[in-house]
Amino acid sequence: MLSNGQGCWSDVARNAGLQRCGKSCRLRWINYLRPDLKRGAFSPQEEELIIHLHSVLGNRWSQIAARLPGRTDNEIKNFWNSTIKKRLKNSSTSTSPNKSNASDPRDFTGAGLFSMSEQDIMNLCMDSSSSSSSSMHAMVMRNRFDPLPMLENSHDHHHMPNAGAGLFNVSACMTQVGIGDGLFYGNHGIIGGGGNNIGLDQSELFIPSLECISIEEENNTTDNTFEKTNNNNLLNNINIINNNNNNNFVESGNYWGGENLRMGEWDMEELLEDVSSFPFLDFQVQ
DNA sequence: AATACTTGCAACCGCCTGGTC
DNA sequence: AGACCAGGCGGTTGCAAGTAT
């Protein structure tokens, strides 16, 4: 491969005299031999990015890998299945159902799901010393509720979660539908997942969804309460009430769109615009 | 020390897609 | 149009290494 470059993999297998098919050679090259592969454990930044991307793309490992230089789809897939998935599962089971009304993934009428106001979010972004604060700000301006890790509501509003502090809850704020891996994603992120990852009670987590974002973008009302029903598949029967008075984000309606939703129906490029400005994307692969 | 169990990762398998004839 | 092939992809398996008993 190094001397001849990528050509026909069956030729590679033949010319190398290997007892392998071209397909096997290709896999070996891609997953192991490629010189640009990044070895070693996943960094917290990579971990967060994977969770973020997975929430948008689902099990599209190759697309996720395309955004993680030096990592292969297989590697990411293994990492997800062996580490992240397990961690999210554990954290969801270890979360006391009494602490939140959101134990039922479809029940989002409970209070306390979100107590971070837009101003809080802005403060969080503006106070962040991260170089990404400007992009964060832009995102918040564009999508008042952005699928980004802005989850804490009371303990430490004014600091970005420390990227080095382990898995903070990008997962809990993201949306994924129709990707079955045993976790409740629903329309509103990984329900009940991940609270312990950052030492927060689940009830303290806001779980904004991409649907929320879409609705938000279309809704310019300044009224404290808005309600919008969208008839397309993605937003079917979702009503959102944004009550700024008590800073709670209360939602109601049919939250398990499930069958109505197909990843392919999403505008991936639009969704990934947010990914491209993900605050930790500016880390350098070593 | 021996055995059982768990974990992480590379490789395999089967399906799908796109190109060519 | 349909057969064939190569490549791409996601799910699954096998196994070595690590850990617990």
TrEMBL record:
<feature type="region of interest" description="Disordered">
    <location>
        <begin position="88"/>
        <end position="109"/>
    </location>
</feature>
<dbReference type="InterPro" id="IPR001005">
    <property type="entry name" value="SANT/Myb"/>
</dbReference>
<feature type="domain" description="HTH myb-type">
    <location>
        <begin position="34"/>
        <end position="88"/>
    </location>
</feature>
<keyword id="KW-0805">Transcription regulation</keyword>
<dbReference type="GO" id="GO:0005634">
    <property type="term" value="C:nucleus"/>
</dbReference>
<feature type="compositionally biased region" description="Low complexity">
    <location>
        <begin position="90"/>
        <end position="103"/>
    </location>
</feature>
<dbReference type="InterPro" id="IPR017930">
    <property type="entry name" value="Myb_dom"/>
</dbReference>
<keyword id="KW-0677">Repeat</keyword>
<dbReference type="InterPro" id="IPR009057">
    <property type="entry name" value="Homeodomain-like_sf"/>
</dbReference>
<feature type="domain" description="Myb-like">
    <location>
        <begin position="34"/>
        <end position="84"/>
    </location>
</feature>
<feature type="domain" description="HTH myb-type">
    <location>
        <begin position="1"/>
        <end position="33"/>
    </location>
</feature>
<keyword id="KW-0238">DNA-binding</keyword>
<protein>
    <submittedName>
        <fullName>Transcription factor myb83</fullName>
    </submittedName>
</protein>
<dbReference type="InterPro" id="IPR051953">
    <property type="entry name" value="Plant_SW-associated_TFs"/>
</dbReference>
<keyword id="KW-0804">Transcription</keyword>
<keyword id="KW-0539">Nucleus</keyword>
<dbReference type="Pfam" id="PF00249">
    <property type="entry name" value="Myb_DNA-binding"/>
</dbReference>
<dbReference type="GO" id="GO:0003677">
    <property type="term" value="F:DNA binding"/>
</dbReference>
<feature type="domain" description="Myb-like">
    <location>
        <begin position="1"/>
        <end position="33"/>
    </location>
</feature>
